[in-house]
Amino acid sequence: xxxxxxxxxxxxxxxxxxxxxxxxxxxxxxxxxxxxxxxxxxxxxxxxxxxxxxxxxxxxxxxxxxxxxxxxxxxxxxxxxxxxxxxxxxxxxxxxxxxxxxxxxxxxxxxxxxxxxxxxxxxxxxxxxxxxxxxxxxxxxxxxxxxxxxxxxxxxxxxxxxxxxxxxxxxxxxxxxxxxxxxxxxxxxxxxxxxxxxxxxxxxxxxxxxxxxxxxxxxxxxxxxxxxxxxxxxxxxxxxxxxxxxxxxxxxxxxxxxxxxxxxxxxxxxxxxxxxxxxxxxxxxxxxxxxxxxxxxxxxxx
Length: 302
Ligand code: ATP
Fold this sequence. Notes:
The chain is α/β, with parallel strands linked by helices and 302 residues long. The protein has 10 helices and 10 strands. It is 36% helix and 18% strand. Strands 6-7-8-3-9-10 form a 6-stranded mixed sheet. Strands 2-1-4-5 form a 4-stranded antiparallel sheet, with helices on one face. Helix 9 packs across helix 10.
């Protein structure tokens, strides 16, 4: 399965972030100067987020000019709503999220935030407005506090502590002999999948963005951890416009709207109940995953 931000993408993102001077990490990385994929339009102004309404209008995109991936997507995400994007592997779910972050420019249509075309605002202001909780969190070889503060350049220790509480990882950190000063990453304390995800959530909370992209992990955590993290995520979605790239439908039943992508087009959209009633692709996917869940439960019971 293709992840939303793969390591190379992430490296590119970190690199671009450095170039934009959003976070001064120049001392950490010494990367060769390659052209960025997208650049600020001449006279680009900072994005002014009022409510956080996101619209995709006739969005067309392909990584290669001769292979269209998104073939005209119209999507209106009301400010503060949670919209889940589901669909078969390769349908273009992650691509949709990457385009909102403006990793690439569109080949047709436009994406707006509160009416402003994202191709016409500065990239640094766009990216400051969007928080991403990725599938796999990259931890820096530094302290856990640093890893959380990385979400925002001027975060204070209080901001970091608040974010850790919001991500329900403060208790765990306090139980460590060195607390927030504990070194993590390759050469430090190895965190579990769930703990890493909570660091990513805390990092996002420090940033406090009006728009959130949640890229659901495909690798299953144990069901108790997953339910706990799910509850934390639902709490941080409050008051923010949220796009969830979902693989397990059971985690997005609560979404205000579910959008089903198929081969680069919106095949269906509605609430969970509406889509089940329609008896289309979503209902089929739901039935299949329900069977898998039952099989798992039977296995666990044996
Ligand atoms: P999954 O559920 O498997 O994560 P997805 O719906 O998120 O899938 P995308 O990652 O958006 O799908 O990919 C859509 C299509 O675009 C796929 O056919 C994929 O091979 C292609 N694709 C994705 N990233 C790139 C890239 N960086 N370069 C070229 N093609 C890509």
